Structure formats: structure tokens, C-alpha cells
Amino acid sequence: MPVLALDLNSFFASVEQQERPELRDRPVGVAPVLADTSCCIAASYPAKACGVKTGTGVAEARRLCPDIVIVEARPALYVRYHERIKACVDRLAPIVAVPSIDEFTCELPAGWQSWERAAELGRRIKRAILDEVGTVLRCSVGIASNAYLAKTACDMRKPDGLTVLRPEDLPEALFRLELRDLCGIGPNLERRLRAAGIHTVERLYAASPLELRKIWGGIGGERMYEYLRGRADYEPPVERRSVGHSHVLPPELRSEAGAHAVLHRMLQKAAMRLRRLALTAGGMQITVRSLAENRRAWGACGWHAEGRFVHTDDTLSLGQHLESLWQRRPQAARKTRPLQVGVVLFDLIETGHQTLPLFPADRPRTRLLETVDRVNLRFGKNTLYFGAAHAARDRSPTRIAFTRIPDIAVE
Ligand SMILES: [Mg+2]
């Protein structure tokens, strides 16, 4: 079933032009404050034609476009317009997502779900905004088989576009785009794609899910593979969050073995929290702060390591990732006396969004983890836990006797 994406063109500048007719058809830049050191957060199309973009400094905008009018942003006004447009759009096509103040994603009501009818509905929505909200509020509409491609279609013609990507137009219609035209491909990812020999959307489309997974460093790669084929529904990534703990070591645990053990215990707790939140992590950072005992001052020095991996909420996999970070700890750091340790899981996405993570062999482990979590919730957080040696066993010979981990509370 087609999905419709809508994006207002030069939204803040258009609202200003709507409110102040003397600004219409003129180069306009909207800035948070009226100062040359400020920058434009929106530009009207005549200003864009001179090279003014979102992020262009006000001084630079004046140089590029000498007759530009810089106006001070009125956020409350833009929110009021946003609400009016939202109501107008929603009446014609139910809004299912609001990715930003000037973007909407809609499903199509019964009777409007064929490609021809969907395109007609897109035209009606554009007309309704002009008629009911503001005569200069133009937007671009994209229609495709998932929200990702609808958004891509929306961006293909600006301003005032209406682009329909039918299944039979794919993938060729995408091949005239640059990599950076695709949502979610920013400068870093573009660099990684190019390093992997992918310079065009056509080559990107030909890449295997596994190849993309490696370049993305996770599930994002497979998701892109699905998106480009119009299959998976596009969900904007969960806002960046993290789950973590840090702990000042009691004197008897201020050793390498103690720090290592406490890190594992904190990780097990963090992993449990992750599962409770129905999230999986794609990255981990561990930190060890040490007393610099050779200094006269009681200073502390820190070491940290960070790694990325395939998204998981599995305590044992996470334990192995912790081990590989721990192996990076330099000899010099191992000679210091740890004072405080911390572990943070980041790049969190909702559990259901992993497409490939659980091999059938891991399923019993999922059940095991659920059981461990239930027991711990019922009887206290440390009733059951994994010996850290277990997580480390496959990777390297264990040099620390985990069986002697004192049963300390980690909170
Ligand atoms: Mg926009």
C-alpha cells in the first residue's frame, strides 16, 4: 500500500512570507537572532538561488545575496502553522508520523490506495494547504511503497513537487540520485561507502545485505537494503540514548581483577535494563579511572575504550564485547590502581528492529535471559548472574579467577 510523505518547502521563510506579504518573492533568510555572527535556519527559494542554505552565516548570506532580508525567527508562530497544516493534512490522509516540524508521513484512506488515486490525493492535500492555511505555503509530496522511499521521492522535486515512485519505476528511478540524496547517508557514511568502492546509488542497490551491514557497522545496512526495495517500513531511529552505570570501587576491589569483575557485574545489570526497555545496543564504552599513585597530588587518570558491534541485548555477547575492549587496556594502565569503573551501552534501537540477530541456536539463551531477569526482579538484582569468565571463555584464556568475585552490590 502506498505511503505519502509531505515536506513543506522553506518552511520558516514561507511562514514569514505568508505573514508579511512584502517579503514574498524576495530572498529571505531566517536567523535565530539578528546578528552577523548568527546563521540562517531557513532560506526562501530566491535566497537559495544565490547559494544561501540552512547553516549559512548571516554575514556570508549578505555577501552571497546583497538584497537578502534577514528576519528573526518566531518559533511560536511556526508551531502554530505546523498545527494548522497538520490538521489540514490529517483530515485528508491520516498522519502516522511527524518526523519534524515541516514533515508528515501519512497512510492513505480507503478508496485512495491505488497509485493514481494516491497521486490525486497528494494534489488535493497541496491544494488544501494553499487554500486553508496560506497561499504561499508550498510543499513537496512523495508517494512510494514505504515511508523511506516516499521521503526520498518527496526530496526529488523541490519546490512544489509531487513525485510518485511506483514499484515498476524501481530501482532505475533511484539511480539518478547521488548517494547523499538518500536519507540517512551523511558525509561519514558516504566516506565509508566510497572507501568500500560504492560511488553510485546503482552500485549501492547491487550490494548484498551483508556488504551493507559491514559498511554501516550494524543493522542499518540491512535496513537500507530493505528500504531501497520498498519493503521494510521506515522507522526513524530511536533518539540517541544510552544505558550505563559507573561505580567507585571499594578499597578491596581497587585492582585489575576487581575492576574487571565489577565491570562485568555492571554490564549484566545494564543488559537487563536494556531488555526491560526492549532495546538492543550497537556500541559499548568502558572507562577505568585510576589513582595516579606516583604523583604527589591525589590525581586521577582515565582510560577508556569504545567498540561497535551487531546490535544485541544478549548478556553473554555483550560480555564478550566487554572482554575484547578490556584486552585493549595497555600495560601501563594495568599498573595503575583503578578507582572507578563505568560501562555505557549506546546506539540503542528497539529490539524488534533487528532483522537478523538471533540465530536459532541463540533462542534458548533468550529464554535463559528472560528467566534470569525474572528471578532477579523477584528476588533481588544479584540473585542470579553470569560468571564473567563464562563470557570470556571463548575468546582468551582467563587470567582472573572469577569465582572469587566478592558479592558486592553494584548500585
Ligand atoms: Mg522542508
What would you note in describing this structure?
The chain is an alpha+beta fold. Among the domains are: 11-75, MutS, DNA mismatch repair protein, domain I, CATH 3.40.1170; 173-228, DNA polymerase, domain 1 (Orthogonal Bundle); 243-404, Dna Ligase, domain 1 (2-Layer Sandwich), CATH 3.30.1490.100. 39% of the residues lie in helices and 20% in strands. The protein has a 5-stranded mixed beta sheet with strand order 5-6-1-7-8. A 4-stranded antiparallel beta sheet has the order 9-12-10-11, covered by helices on one side. The radius of gyration is 27 Å and the shape is globular. Mean pLDDT is 84; it is low at 293-299, 354-360 and 389-411. The protein binds magnesium ion (MG). Magnesium ion (MG) binds next to β1.
The small-molecule ligands in this entry are: magnesium ion
CATH superfamily of the domain at 243-404: DNA polymerase, Y-family, little finger domain
Largest sheet: 5 strands, mixed
- CATH classification, class level of the domain at 243-404: Alpha Beta
Q: Would you tell me the structural class of the helices and strands?
A: alpha+beta
Which percent band covers the strand fraction? 15-25%
Cα gyration radius (Å): 27 Å
For the record, the CATH architecture of the domain at 243-404 stands as 2-Layer Sandwich
H-E order: EHEEHHEHEEHEHEHHHHEHEEHHEHH
Q: Ranges with pLDDT <50 over ≥5 residues? A: 293-299, 354-360, 389-411
Q: How large is the count of helical segments?
A: 15
* Average pLDDT number: 84
Order of strands in the sheet with most strands: 5-6-1-7-8
Coarse morphology: globular
The first-to-last residue Cα distance is: 49 Å
Q: Which fold name fills CATH's third level, the topology of the domain at 243-404?
A: Dna Ligase, domain 1
